[in-house]
Amino acid sequence: MENLFLVCGLSGKLSILMADVHDKKTRSYNMSKIRGKDTKPEMIVRKFLHAQGFRYRLHDKKLPGKPDIVLPKYKTIIDVRGCFWHCHKDCNKGDKISTTSEIVSGKRISAVKRDKIKSQKWKELGWRVIIIWTDCELEPKRKKSIKREVNLNRLMKILKIKD
Ligand SMILES: [Zn+2]
Question: Separation of 46 CA from ligand 1 center, angstroms?
C-alpha cells in the first residue's frame, strides 16, 4: 500500500513537474512573441540602420521598458511591435483577428497597456518615438518586399529630420 502511494505520489509529482516545464516553455515563447526581443523583424531594422551608418544601442536598461533600438544621436527610440500581439489598429493582422482564448486576449490587452505607458514615459523624457509595425510594414516572411523597402526608407528620412 505504502509502495503504491509512493509510486502514485512520484508519478503525480512528475506530471506536475512536466506540466510546469511545458508552461514555462509556452510562457517564454509567448513572451518572446510579445516582447519581440532579437526577432527577425527587429534584425531587419537593425541591419538596415547599420548599413545606413546609424549607430544605436539595444534594449537600453537605463531607459524605462528597455526600448528595442535607441539612437542617442537622433534622440530617437524605435519600438518594433508585432501587429497581432500589440493590436495594430486598422491592420488585418492586428485588430481584425479575434481570438477565443482568454489568455491570448489578456496578453494582448496588457501588451497594449504596457506600450502606452512606455511611449508616454519616453516622450516625457524628451525622446522621439518611432513605432514600426512588423507584419504589415516589414513583411518579414517575404524574401523581398517593396513595402519593407518603402517603410525603411521612410524611417531613414524621418530620422534625418531634426525637430
Ligand atoms: Zn500591422
Answer: 19
